[in-house]
Amino acid sequence: MLSGSVVAVSRDATHRFSKDNQDSVRLLAGLGVEGDAHLGVTVQHLSRVARDPTQPNLRQVHLIHAELFDELRDAGYDIHPGDLGENITTSGLALLDLPVGTRLRLGPDAVVEVTGLRNPCRQIDGFRGGLLKHVIGRDEAGAVVRKGGIMSIVIEGGVVRPGDTVGVELPAAPHRPLEKV
């Protein structure tokens, strides 16, 4: 069975780029992270609200693998959990390789379902100049590679803390690769 661990949990009640680290966060089924600006049944990302505020919120919980921070550090960027706006920072799990519909058990109670890839925007360069080209790149074949984490919805609520395990339940085959949401 695939598994990893929670390194950090973060939230922010306002629409800022980074989120503050917490001792714990509470996930609310069908809504997201309690006290976070992206909490809601319908889309909360400001640019998406402007286009269509009735679309479902497939971006309730944002997860990033801590291994990305190591890669960015090697490129000269000092990035820490919460800096890139994620709610949950994980370690030991290849988040970007998971298929759509994967369920992640976070700690003893919470379960999220993976909906797709985060699509980092130019705001990331406002946070740290030139960072966008390190989180969106191209593979050897020229295809776009998005490294900015994954998005999910909350299936079962619960409290998540640093040190919690992350269990993985893959959906039935055939698996669909992640696309931006």
Architecture blueprint of SSEs:
Elements: E1 3-11, E2 20-22, E3 25-28, E4 32-33, H1 46-51, E5 61-65, H2 67-74, E6 88-91, E7 103-106, E8 110-117, H3 123-127, H4 132-135, E9 136-138, E10 144-146, E11 150-156, E12 158-160, E13 165-169
Parallel strand pairs: 5-6
Antiparallel strand pairs: 1-2, 1-6, 1-13, 3-4, 3-12, 5-11, 7-8, 7-13, 8-11, 9-10
Could you walk me through the main structural features you see in this protein, from its secondary elements to its overall organization?
Residues 20-169 form the MOSC domain. This is MOSC domain-containing protein YiiM. It comes from Actinacidiphila yanglinensis. InterPro entries: MoCF_Sase_C (IPR005302), MOSC_domain (IPR052716), Pyrv_Knase-like_insert_dom_sf (IPR011037). This protein has 181 residues and is mainly beta. It has a single domain (3-169), classed as PK beta-barrel domain-like (M1 Pyruvate Kinase, Domain 3), CATH 2.40.33.20. It is built from 4 helices and 13 strands. It has helices spanning 46-51, 67-74, 123-127, 132-135; strands spanning 3-11, 20-22, 25-28, 32-33, 61-65, 88-91, 103-106, 110-117, 136-138, 144-146, 150-156, 158-160, 165-169. The strands form 3 sheets. The protein has a 7-stranded mixed barrel with strand order 1-6-5-11-8-7-13. It has a 3-stranded antiparallel sheet with strand order 4-3-12, with no helix packed on it. The chain has a two-stranded antiparallel ribbon with strand order 9-10. A hairpin with a 3-residue loop joins strand 7 (103-106) and strand 8 (110-117). The longest helix has 8 residues, at 67-74. The chain starts with a strand and ends in a 12-residue tail after the last strand.
